[in-house]
Specification:
This protein is α+β, with helices and mostly antiparallel strands. The protein is built from one helix and two strands, in the order H-E-E. It is flat, with a radius of gyration of 11 Å. The two termini are about 20 Å apart.
Length: about 45
């Protein structure tokens, strides 16, 4: 997921809400040290 520069936390919360409505749960998120503009989400469908 690409993060916006101004409000990254708001974007993350919005994405989490969208996935929860789709019955997907985020297990873990990871941010690479060399690229702070992206995070990787590990999810499971329930």
């Amino acid at each position: 997921m690409k993060l916006l520069h101004k409000k990254p936390l708001a974007l993350i919360k919005d994405v989490i809400d969208t996935f929860e409505r789709s019955r997907m749960q985020i297990q873990r998120s990871k941010q690479l040290f060399h690229n702070r503009e992206e995070i990787t989400l590990y999810m499971v469908k329930y």
